[in-house]
Design a protein that fits this description.
949 residues; Jelly Rolls; eight-stranded mixed β-sheet; 58 strands; 36% strand; mainly beta
């Protein structure tokens, strides 16, 4: 916006001509200039003279009208208002090691990187602000832990960039699991469809314990591949000690692996935060036993063998082969039936042909089982088949009591087996030659042939200890050893403080590590945090340099890699863990900080290029000497040196050190310690008003790169000498062109050992062009009011307009609700996005700018910026529903596009509104305004209906 003083004299050329002619007619009535007054070539000479006079007067009036502006600019110069030089954009750079690098890489301070040059845009150079150690260690897991609510949040995918999002640092999302697992193949392995039965679990609790009463529990069974399904049972009352729970085993239960133990599993899971249950109500269990009462019929064997040949039970088969003889064996396997010691087993057999005893020696079959060491006989067999020689009646079956059978491998198949062995006699012989009788003997072989064989059992195991009990609490599995005594199935967290955990894949070297935290919004920072690392036996305190002010703003956490950093297990993962605990928080800290990404190997860089040791020239001893830097504009921080013939006086030396530091005077000596050269770094000032004859001061015009020295009265004249003035260091650059998009800064200007590449994960921001005369004319008077300090809300808003970065709108909101935060500053960047929102880099620059200008009561370096928050705006969605009638029905789709485009333009936060200058904060949108926009759209006949919400 241009601020122009009202004209002292607003007359133009024609006004002066007309006024002069009018005066001439009044004072010289006898002069008759004629009609052609405006045509100089044909006019009276007096008219020409009037035109010359008018032109001269017009020049004088023009200069006179510039006098207020000249005086105004002089006044601004007098109060110290200078044209603001360009501001360099800042970018977060992330460096990458080469794939094979196993050691740290180093990026020195002022390392230059750049964007790629294109036809319409020159390459932009960025320089790192400080040295960076690039580590091969990777951050691979992050979790938040919220003990108060017994919750956690796996934030790995957000922090590593796999998915977009943000999370609250000290808030959990998912309940921490508190589970105890019961694994028992006998009790819970009854998953065949032929079986019917019930399982009873008996829980004996510690005396005085309320058991499972009023405890929210979920009962589930293993469905394979880590899936768990609700266990169906109707029991509602869980009171009593001991407590018995009876249920049916679902048919789809399968074996699964829990903590490297494979069983059929039932698990009991706490269905609420353990923190919501009083500690004295948590159950304590002394013992868990179980029993199964089940029966099955028509069970097919798992496998059958004749000696070592497999047979298929569904088909007719010879159990001992077609030509059985002494010691031939029939093997039967069934894990379901033969694993139940003490069960009453029945075997139903239907013969195609029963066997026939073929000798005078009595036929005998021996039934045997494997006890883990040898085959043992099975006693008390009820065999209605008489050794497979007669068909049993319809309801008759072979019956036996199942012994304690152990699994055994038969023909490469490990199962529960019984076997039937021909221990004497046979089923006849085939035709053969009798060497004694010297002749052939007809065969009488009649082996048994079985058409169908099925197994059945009835089993009540009686109460017995559960085969395997495993507890899972707080991400850790703990087996309950037999005879260990009572135990707590649900154990609260030992940690009391909320924390953020960072898991790394390898050990850091004993070197500086930088972790960048991308804080989404600034939260109140009266909280106190403590950083810790996992040591050999406990968490140990980690000394850090915290630029985030307790995660209240984005920035780096810097630390030295601990030598005793130890791989430990947390959240079920073995990593090198760091954590930050919230150890103290005010009751007014209602907002938890929010994070997006956490980056390793990052450093800030700015859009500048450093020039070193540039010779400015020689002093001739005259007053007001000026020297020109080769590159400009110049960023703050230049160092101008002058060679002087002698050491400054003691009082002058003290002033030099006070202004420029201990290293501002450099003395070179020869081998004999004689002084050969004295160099003094002079001090930059905005003006020479306070400078004396011996003040080593100079002024710099950063926009044009001009350096000016004093006149000997106000500012010392540099001593005469040849090539005795030079600039050892200055930086040039800046401007909006440095505000490049993310992933654009990718080129290293020079190769670095082990460094493979670089990128900027976020857009660069904060770059501003040099200020114009019109801009300083607007800013200058306000500068006189606030004097570069933020006291009132208006001061904050004006300072925001002067802050680095292209800020279109700003609003200062005083907050009186919380004693720890008094000011919220909302900024809107000047970008074309539908919903402009400041980048984190811009917020950081604005924060840094404000922190140097706010009252001490709003800023405490020890605790961070507690009472000021810089953030972006919030947006309210406006929904427009309109029925629009076009002038021409064939143009309906075109008119629709125009209406939508006009509405989007009208509702744009920065370019919309009734005057196309954007929308003020909090300004309501009226339905009449929307109606006007639609009605004024080309091609619209009328608006039939309109709704705004």
């Amino acid at each position: 916006m241009s601020l122009t003083a009202p004209p002292v004299d607003d007359r133009n050329f024609d006004d002066i001509v007309n006024q002069t002619l009018a005066l001439a007619k009044q004072y010289c009535p006898e002069w008759k200039p004629g009609a052609a007054q405006d045509k100089i070539e044909t006019a009276d000479p007096g008219v020409a003279l009037v035109h010359l006079f008018a032109r001269l007067m017009e020049i004088i009036i023009t200069r006179l009208n510039q006098v207020p502006d000249k005086y105004f600019l002089a006044f601004l110069d007098f109060i110290g208002a200078k044209l603001r030089p360009p501001v360099p954009a800042k970018a977060l750079l992330r460096f990458f090691l080469s794939e094979k690098a196993k050691v740290n890489g180093r990026v020195p301070a002022r390392t230059q990187v750049a964007t790629e040059e294109s036809e319409d845009r020159e390459a932009q150079i960025f320089e790192t602000e400080k040295e960076l150690v690039v580590t091969p260690v990777k951050l691979i897991n992050t979790f938040t832990l919220d003990p108060e609510n017994d919750r956690y949040n796996d934030t790995t995918s957000i922090v590593t960039g796999v998915e977009d999002g943000q999370f609250e640092v000290f808030k959990g999302k998912d309940l921490i699991e508190h589970i105890f697992y019961l694994g028992d193949d006998l009790l819970f392995g009854l998953n065949e469809t032929s079986a019917k039965g019930n399982v009873t679990l008996r829980f004996a609790f510690q005396e005085g314990s309320s058991g499972f009463q009023n405890i929210p529990l979920k009962w589930e069974y293993s469905a394979g591949a880590g899936r768990w399904q609700p266990l169906p049972f109707d029991q509602q009352n869980f009171s009593g000690n001991p407590l018995e729970v009876t249920f049916h085993i679902p048919g789809d239960i399968v074996k699964d692996n829990v903590s490297d133990h494979e069983h059929y599993w039932i698990r009991i899971r706490l269905d609420d935060a353990i923190s919501s249950i009083p500690i004295d109500r948590l159950p304590e269990i002394e013992d868990i036993t179980g029993s199964i009462d089940c029966s099955a019929d028509g069970v097919l064997p798992d496998a059958c063998f004749t000696n070592h040949l497999p047979i298929d039970p569904p088909e007719s088969f010879y159990p001992f082969g077609p030509a059985p003889t002494y010691q031939h064996i029939f093997y039967i396997a069934s894990d379901e039936v033969f694993s139940k010691s003490g069960a009453d087993i029945s075997i139903s057999i239907v013969f195609d042909e029963p066997g026939v005893q073929g000798s005078e020696e009595s036929l005998a079959l021996t039934w045997e089982y494997w006890d883990g060491e040898a085959w043992q006989p099975i006693d008390n067999i009820i065999d209605p088949t008489n050794h497979f020689t007669q068909s049993p009646a319809a309801n008759e079956r072979i019956r036996l009591v199942c012994p304690q059978i152990e699994p055994k491998e038969i023909n490469l198949l490990t199962r529960y087996w019984i076997r039937i062995r021909i221990s004497s006699g046979h089923y006849g012989l085939s035709a053969h030659y009798d060497s004694v009788e010297q002749g052939w003997v007809d065969g009488n072989l009649h082996p048994p042939k079985i058409r169908e064989m099925k197994l059945g059992y009835q089993y009540n195991s009686g109460l017995h200890p559960i085969e395997k009990i495993i507890l899972k609490n707080n991400f850790k599995y703990l087996p309950v050893e037999p005879g260990a005594g009572s135990f707590l199935p649900f154990v609260p967290l030992e940690e009391e403080d909320p924390a953020l955990y960072l898991g790394f894949d390898a050990l850091f070297s004993h070197d500086a590590v930088l972790l960048f935290f991308q804080v989404v919004r600034e939260a109140q920072s009266s909280r106190q945090l403590q950083w810790e690392y996992a040591g050999p036996d406990e968490w140990r305190r980690l000394q850090v340099k915290d630029e985030t002010w307790n995660l209240s703003r984005q920035g780096h956490i810097q630390f030295i890699g601990p030598k005793d950093f130890t791989r430990t297990e947390n959240f079920g993962l073995s990593r090198y863990w760091l954590r930050v605990r919230l150890i103290s928080v005010s009751a007014l800290d209602l907002i938890s900080p929010e994070l997006q990404r956490i980056y390793l190997n990052t450093v800030w860089a700015e859009n500048t290029a450093t020039v070193k040791n540039e010779l400015l020239g020689s002093s001739d001893g005259s007053a007001d000497q000026t020297f020109q830097l080769k590159q400009f504009p110049v960023m703050p921080g230049q160092q101008v040196w002058v060679k002087e013939p002698e050491m400054p006086a003691a009082d002058e030396y003290e002033k030099i050190v006070r202004e420029e530091g201990e290293d501002a005077v450099a003395v070179t000596r020869d081998e004999k310690e004689a002084v050969t050269e004295i160099r003094v770094r002079w001090h930059a000032k905005d003006n020479f008003y306070s400078s004396g004859p011996r003040s080593r001061h100079y002024m710099i015009e950063p926009i044009i790169g001009e350096i000016r020295f004093g006149d000997g009265s106000r500012g010392m004249i540099p001593p005469m000498g040849t090539d005795n003035i030079w600039c050892s260091l200055y930086r040039t650059g800046g401007g909006v062109r440095g505000n490049v998009e993310k992933s654009k800064i990718t080129r290293l200007k020079a190769a670095l050992p082990h460094i493979a590449g670089v990128t900027n994960p976020e857009p660069a921001a904060g770059g501003m062009d040099a200020e114009t005369i019109d801009e300083i004319k607007t800013r200058g008077p306000i500068l006189l009011k606030h004097r570069d300090r933020a006291v009132t809300t208006e001061d904050f808003e004006w300072l925001m307009k002067e802050a680095p970065g292209d800020i279109a709108l700003c609003k200062c909101i005083p907050v009186s609700d919380y004693s720890d935060k008094h000011v919220i500053v909302v900024i809107v960047p000047d970008v074309d996005d539908p919903k402009p929102y400041p980048s984190q880099a811009l917020i950081r620059q604005v924060q840094e700018y404000l922190y140097q200008r706010i009252l001490a009561t709003l800023f405490s370096p020890a605790a961070g910026a507690r009472r000021i928050q810089v953030t972006g705006p919030g947006y309210i969605e406006i929904s427009v529903q309109a029925d629009v009638i076009p002038n021409n029905i064939e143009q309906a789709s075109i008119v629709q596009e125009k209406v939508i485009a006009n509405l989007e333009n009208f509702l744009h936060p920065l370019k919309g509104g009734p005057d196309n200058k954007g929308w003020p904060f909090g300004r309501a949108v009226h339905i009449s305004e929307i109606m006007t926009v639609i009605q004024n759209t080309e091609g619209v006949d009328y608006v039939k209906s309109l709704r705004l919400r």
